[in-house]
Design a protein that fits this description.
The protein folds into two domains: about 230 residues, no CATH class; about 110 residues, no CATH class. The protein is about 40% helix and about 10% strand. The chain is elongated and about 80 Å long. It is of the alpha/beta class. Helix 4 runs antiparallel to helix 5. The two termini are about 50 Å apart. A five-stranded parallel β-sheet has the order 1-3-2-4-5. A five-stranded mixed β-sheet has the order 6-7-8-10-9.
Length: about 350
């Protein structure tokens, strides 16, 4: 993802503008800079939060707003002079105004989600596909962009929305075992604001907001890179393995990878999508030196397997395991039966096939 150098103007109580940084290229001709219209992103001055810090960063990932100035103010006329306004003014129209504080606001990301949007969710809802397509260098209408759009919201942005709107991820009757609030991104962003007994001058506040926006944006960009470059390719490998599973068992109960792949979460999603829930019982993969045969759990969060490896094999190792199973190259079977090992791909596959019949 592109790195950013935010330009922030403070107009908290007057029309005074303070330029913290300039994004224009030093080689750009002066005439060109004069001709280029300066876009402005408006948000509120004073104490800032994770949602508008992220919203501003996401906007500046777009070509239209890449070189824009961020105007932080509470003065309506100054804000209305901006090209887009986030987290202030009490309006949401999906075009210029992206605030969520009005009494009748109830917008969610889609009908599949219940969490009310913050300014971060609003900007992502309207511009997320464009941001993702730019990262992938592909059409905004592609299936991959749509998939990542929903995944990135549910895996990251939704939590920012819920936190800013005071919506707990847990029922009220569940008491946490410890306090994790101090290590969340919103709490870290809050720490960039001055303490009650520290100065709150405009220049300092704008500088701190710039730091907070950069922090939120770097995490967002890292998440997007992971889901685009790692999570998505792994999903396609799991899909291929599911399609090819009938090569190893007529009912498609054995899935084979020739390398280590993050498969578990994808398996449950794809089984549901392909309407084959519960079909896969064993997954084979290489750890680089030997092979593993792992029993699939009943759910992504469960330690209970759909079909554990046979009870007589559990806790047996090496030659004793080979003698017991009649399969050369035995390494081990875990005492719970959730995983076993063999020196070769052929041996691991034979273990899985024999386990199906026991």
């Amino acid at each position: 993802m592109r790195s950013q150098n935010l330009s922030v103007c403070s107009t908290q109580s007057t029309s005074r503008e303070i330029m913290v940084s300039d994004n224009s290229s030093p080689q750009e001709p002066t005439a060109t800079k004069r001709q280029r219209p300066e876009m402005k992103i408006g948000t509120h001055s004073g104490t800032f939060h994770a949602d508008e810090a992220l919203a501003v960063y996401m906007l500046k990932l777009l070509p239209k707003y890449k070189n824009s100035t961020v105007v932080r103010s509470r003065t309506p006329d100054i804000l209305e002079a901006c090209d887009i306004i986030v987290d202030v003014q009490g309006k949401y129209d999906g075009l210029k105004h992206f605030d969520h504080h009005q009494r009748d606001f109830s917008e969610t990301f889609s009908t599949d989600f219940k969490t009310k949007l913050s300014s971060a969710g609003l900007i992502f809802k309207h511009f997320g596909k464009e941001i993702i397509s730019d990262e992938l260098n592909t059409s905004v209408d592609s299936a991959d962009v749509s998939l990542l759009y929903t995944k990135l919201y549910s895996a990251f942005v939704e939590a920012i929305d819920g936190n800013d709107n005071g919506e707990s991820a847990y029922p009220d009757n569940i008491k946490p075992a410890y306090n994790a609030s101090g290590i969340t991104l919103p709490s870290i962003v809050a720490g960039y604001n001055p303490s009650w007994n520290e100065p709150r001058d405009d220049v300092y506040m704008d500088t701190q907001f710039e730091k907070a926006s950069k922090l939120m944006g770097e995490v967002f960009s890292s998440k997007l890179k992971f889901y685009a470059k790692s999570w998505l390719p792994a999903r396609e490998l799991v899909r291929t393995a599911l399609v090819e599973s009938t090569k190893y068992d007529d009912e498609g109960r054995i899935m084979v990878f020739d390398t280590t792949v993050t498969w578990k979460g994808h398996l449950f999603d794809l089984e549901e999508e392909m309407k084959i829930e519960g079909r896969t019982l064993y997954v084979l993969y290489s750890d680089g030196a030997s092979w593993r045969v792992q029993a699939v759990p009943v759910s992504n969060e469960s330690f209970t397997s759909r079909k554990p490896l046979p009870e007589p094999w559990r806790g047996v190792r090496d030659q004793a395991l080979s003698d017991l199973t009649g399969i050369d190259g035995g390494i081990f079977v875990h005492a719970s039966g959730f995983i076993g090992g063999n020196k070769t791909r052929e041996g691991a596959l034979e273990m899985a096939k024999k386990a199906l019949e026991m």
